[in-house]
Automatic annotation (TrEMBL):
Keywords: ATP-binding, Cell inner membrane, Cell membrane, Membrane, Nucleotide-binding, Phosphate transport, Translocase, Transport. One of its GO terms (molecular function) is ATP binding. It comes from the Bacteria. This is Phosphate ABC transporter ATP-binding protein. SMART domains: AAA. Residues 21-263 form the ABC transporter domain. GO terms for biological process: phosphate ion transmembrane transport. One of its GO terms (cellular component) is membrane. It comes from Pseudothauera rhizosphaerae.
Length: 268
């Protein structure tokens, strides 16, 4: 058995899969200002975990800790410990590029590379040496687009720019790009907030399908979306993780008054 930080009694009754990631006493500082005040959270294999809470409460900040995207922000400092499969992801010897392939990210605003649809998907597998030749790369591109539900719409125009697709297609392209490097965890920061309802429904459907293979953590400001796609929900408020529980419990009988106030619209 690997040594881990599991603190099982704190999380009883909310999970049945294997532990995938564990965060302990995670604090994030932007300069002198502490934006996250010691977050403890376990994330289980193949779950869809939603982060909700008022704007500015630290959801994106915490999400970025999970694949060290905060490293790219000047003046941002992270303390505490985060494990992926029992390994400290902030360990100095860890390859951050590899980490970000294992823990992929999809952003609020679709951000395809200014390259062809094909190259958007092929870039990561090539970088990580996942294909031994063109045929294998073609295969990865096709399978990734299939999984993201985009293949039929783009198969005849793979050489055209990814930025020429509609917003919803671009977001599925970004999901395909994340999938192409065979991630274990996919982080999504309000992936539907720039999409219309039809494109949103497609992405939500996709999240449900993808959770069979991947662990998914999704930030959403839309409580109906959290209720539709997630098995567990974590409520953040003013830089604290207030509670995490089964999504139905959070939305019907939360333990904390702050969660109750938020889900009933008393603040937000
Ligand atoms: N790059 C940054 N530089 C300085 N402060 C930041 C930065 N990103 C976020 N913050 C601050 O950290 C807090 C949490 O922000 P954020 O994680 O974006 O919240 P949420 O995603 O829940 O809306 C806010 O007070 C915000 O102003
Ligand atoms: Mg945010």
């Amino acid at each position: 058995m690997r040594a881990t930080l599991v603190n099982a009694e704190k999380f009883v009754g909310v999970a049945n899969g294997a532990l995938k990631m564990a965060a302990r006493d995670v604090r994030v500082f932007y300069g002198e200002s502490e934006a996250l005040h010691g977050v403890d959270l376990d994330i289980y294999e193949n779950e869809v975990l939603a982060f909700i809470g008022p704007s500015g409460c630290g959801k994106s900040t915490f999400l970025r800790c999970l694949n060290r995207m905060n490293d790219t922000i000047d003046g941002c400092r992270v303390t505490g410990r985060i494990e992926l499969d029992g390994e400290d992801i902030y360990d100095r010897s860890l390859d951050v590029v590899l980490l970000r392939a294992r823990v992929g990210m999809v952003f609020q605003k679709p951000n395809p590379f200014p390259k062809s649809i094909y190259e958007n998907i092929a870039y990561g597998p090539r970088l990580h040496g996942l294909a031994s030749g063109r045929a294998e790369l073609d295969d990865i591109v096709e399978r990734s687009l299939q999984r993201a539900g985009l293949w039929e719409e783009v198969k005849d125009r793979l050489e055209q720019p990814g930025t020429g697709l509609s917003g919803g297609q671009q977001q599925r392209l970004c999901i395909a790009r994340a999938i192409a490097v065979s991630p274990e965890v996919i982080l999504m920061d309000e992936p539907c907030s720039a999409l219309d309802p039809i494109a949103t429904a497609k992405v939500e459907q996709l999240i449900t399908e993808l959770s069979e293979t991947y662990t998914i953590v999704i930030v959403t400001h839309n409580m109906q979306q959290a209720a539709r796609v997630s098995r567990r929900t974590a409520f953040f408020h003013l830089g604290n993780l207030v509670e995490v529980d089964d999504t139905t419990k959070i939305f019907t009988s939360p333990s904390d008054g702050r969660t109750e106030d938020y889900i009933t619209g008393r603040f937000g």
